[in-house]
């Protein structure tokens, strides 16, 4: 099953992202910070994670590192989706195990394009 | 539409996406934004403009930008033609052109240059196989403004994310002025951009082994399509390759090219002896398979 975990402290961004992923055929879960995301990932390992960077309680990078250290945590495709838009952040995210990186603002075409490149759009 | 409303929408779209909407695109803007207005329970675009002025609501701004930028130029647009080029056409050309070690590629109606640069990135990825080869990638567009933009290789943050893997962004772009990204010099040197009109003589440009002419002919009437395909045919060796958009075909338009079964969007001159990698099928089976797709 294609299940997607959307991690962002903005309810609006989660709603927009959810619409896009559901239209493609993903089943979505939401988390408002990295800690909640980690709890949800422990309960059910997501197939794909759309991950904000700056959030209260636990930020996206710390979540990603914790996820990758979990049993089976190497499996999910993790796409950062953040206002951090410089090369240093991108490289730090990729080094921590992110598969893709989206700089906000984004749109459905950007997400679909990334998923297509990752081979997740079907044919 | 009132000029101040057009200005409001076009500024919003430009700020968020980099897409420039000139006043002659008013019709496009109206036709694409009316469904957005309806979705937001607004009767007219004027109502939507007023709503936007009163309250800069994120979801409304998102929907407007989305509606205007759909199907605009992407890096690796549709992906499949680029996979086809890298995995199939380029290896064939490496064999066919082993003597002169020279391949010429044309991106027709290159717009802001994403297609041409995508092809350059593929060639850069295959650099080990292309040692000693001369690869020419030429993009032409009717619009001087587009040619200037394409040459600059500067794209908005929005544009560099459309279809482009982040690994390619890191490898082939440098960040300039905050949220703009520019193609790095070595890649820019692989591509030339020129003004050129598909409808007038392109003959002075020489011959091309591969022509990307995607989602261009859809804007022309039938006789014009035929003329353009005829012109491309004269500029192509018999073992060249033509790529068109998924919704386009040569069938019923020109007899200069034939369809390659199983490779969507790929056409070759009639004289070509292209042999598909797939096992040949009886014609009847091929037709029903095509219909099933």
- SS-based class of chain A: alpha/beta
Name the helicity range of chain B.
40-55%
| Annotation field: number of helices of chain B | 11
What is the CATH class name of chain A? Alpha Beta
Strand elements of chain B, count: 10
Largest sheet of chain B, order of strands side by side?
6-2-1-7-8-10-9
Multimeric status of the protein? heterodimer
Number of domains of chain A: 1
Q: List the uncertain runs of chain B.
A: 279-293
Describe the structure.
By secondary structure, chain A is α/β, with parallel strands linked by helices. Chain A has one domain: Rossmann fold, CATH 3.40.50.2300. Chain A is 43% helix and 20% strand. Chain A has helices at residues 11-24, 34-43, 60-69, 87-95, 108-117; strands at residues 3-7, 27-31, 48-51, 77-82, 100-103. In chain A, strands 2-1-3-4-5 form a five-stranded parallel beta sheet, sandwiched between helices. In chain A, helix 1 (11-24) links the parallel strand 1 (3-7) and strand 2. Chain A starts with a strand and ends in a 6-residue tail after the last helix. Chain B has eleven helices and ten strands. Chain B has 293 residues and is α/β, with parallel strands linked by helices. In chain B, helix 10 links the parallel strand 7 (210-212) and strand 8 (241-243). In chain B, helix 1 (3-17) crosses helix 4 and helix 2 packs across helix 4 (58-69). Chains A and B meet through helix 1, helix 4, strand 5 and helix 5 of A and helix 4 and helix 8 of B.
């Amino acid at each position: 099953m294609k299940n997607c975990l959307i991690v962002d402290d903005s309810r609006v961004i989660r709603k927009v992202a959810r619409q896009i992923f559901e239209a493609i055929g993903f089943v979505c879960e939401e988390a408002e910070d990295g800690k909640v995301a980690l709890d949800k990932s422990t309960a059910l390992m997501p197939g794909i994670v759309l991950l904000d960077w700056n959030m209260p309680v636990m930020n996206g990078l710390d979540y990603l590192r914790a996820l990758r250290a979990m049993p089976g945590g190497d499996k999910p495709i993790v796409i950062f989706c953040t206002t951090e838009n410089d090369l240093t952040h991108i490289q730090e995210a990729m080094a921590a195990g992110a598969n893709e990186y989206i700089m906000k603002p984004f749109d459905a075409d950007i997400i679909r394009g990334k998923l297509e490149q990752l081979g997740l759009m079907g044919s | 539409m009132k000029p101040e409303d057009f200005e409001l929408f076009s500024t919003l779209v430009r700020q968020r996406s980099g897409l420039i909407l000139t006043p002659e695109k008013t019709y496009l803007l109206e036709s694409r934004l009316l469904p957005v207005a309806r979705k937001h329970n607004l009767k007219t675009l004027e109502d939507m403009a007023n709503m936007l002025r009163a309250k800069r609501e994120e979801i409304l701004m998102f929907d407007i930008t989305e509606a205007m930028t759909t199907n605009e130029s992407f890096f690796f647009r549709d992906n499949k033609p680029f996979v086809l080029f890298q995995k199939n056409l380029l290896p064939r050309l490496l064999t066919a052109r082993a003597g002169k070690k020279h391949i010429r590629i044309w991106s027709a109606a290159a717009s802001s240059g994403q297609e041409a640069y995508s092809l350059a990135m593929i060639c850069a990825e295959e650099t080990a196989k292309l040692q000693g080869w001369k690869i020419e990638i030429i993009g032409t567009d009717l619009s001087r403004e587009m040619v200037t933009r394409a040459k600059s290789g500067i794209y908005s943050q929005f544009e560099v994310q459309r279809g482009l893997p982040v690994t390619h962004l890191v490898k082939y772009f440098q960040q300039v002025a905050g949220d703009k990204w520019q193609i790095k010099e070595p890649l820019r040197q692989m591509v030339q951009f020129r003004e050129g009109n598909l409808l007038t003589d392109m003959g002075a440009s020489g011959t091309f082994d591969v022509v990307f002419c995607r989602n261009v002919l859809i804007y022309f009437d039938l006789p014009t399509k035929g003329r353009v395909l005829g012109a491309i045919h004269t500029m192509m060796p018999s073992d060249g390759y033509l790529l068109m958009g998924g919704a386009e075909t040569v069938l019923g338009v020109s007899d200069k090219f034939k369809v390659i079964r199983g490779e969507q969007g790929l056409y070759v001159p009639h004289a070509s002896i292209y042999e598909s990698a797939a096992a040949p099928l009886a014609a009847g089976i091929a037709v029903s398979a095509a219909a099933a797709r």
